[in-house]
Amino acid sequence: MKRFSIVSTKGGTGKTTTVHNLAAGLNALNKSVLLVDTDPQSNLSYAAGRFNDELGIYDVFNGLSWQSAVQNIRDGLDIISADHRLVYLENKKDLHILQKAFKSVKAYDYLLIDCPPSLGYLTQSALITTGNYLLPLQTEYLAMRNVASLNQLVSELKPERKDIKLAGVILSMYNTRRKLSGEGANIIKQHFKKVFKTVIRNTVAVTEAAAQETDVITYKPSSPGASDFISLAKEVIKLK
Ligand SMILES: Nc1ncnc2c1ncn2[C@@H]1O[C@H](COP(=O)(O)OP(=O)(O)OP(=O)(O)O)[C@@H](O)[C@H]1O
Ligand SMILES: [Mg+2]
After folding, report:
1. What CATH number does the domain containing 135 carry?
2. Quick one: which of 18, 56, 64, 93 is 20 to 30 A from 225 by CA?
């Protein structure tokens, strides 16, 4: 089983959209996926149509087994949802609660954790649970500005888990009509060793799918958005 957190300090870089549609892409390629939403905003839970009064990740942080909090989306795709109670956890101290809770998750091919746009307790818990993380970056001038604080956090977390590492940068929300997007992409490629070849274009079907509480592959399988996420899923499957 492979595990990834989707992390970035900056808000609105496409974390939730990436994790949701990447899961759908992996699922379309016959992989089983457990999605976990750790963001109090609960955008992933909404986008997957699973925001409700059921038990969620907050309860897992409070001792509930993950099995009791799982909701099914479709065959081979499950989610543990978030809700606003998660804000009360930001002052918690034990960084290993989530890691211990997910020790026994072996039945899936992938565990994907969506994080809030902060480097607080929830993101730290996710990083310690998965080790590997994916970083979505917009191809814009200021994209790199917050990367230093994430690097700093990862080195501070080394005593808790020494093998936390960036599995790859995903160029997200790419605007094919803007020259600056290409320049931004080049700067990012020079800076990071691993940048996925697939570029996630900014397309309307991706947003529409979330509004319809589903992913773009289910919503419009023939759209550019669907093909981008299938292509990203193929690259993720090939990761060592
Ligand atoms: N490829 C895309 N094409 C079109 N719209 C997109 C794309 N990716 C993201 N968006 C839109 O951009 C907005 C921000 O994306 P998203 O919620 O995924 O970012 P985020 O990093 O999870 O944000 P936050 O930091 O608030 O959690 C959303 O309205 C989403 O629908
Ligand atoms: Mg989000």
Report:
1. 3.40.50.300
2. 56
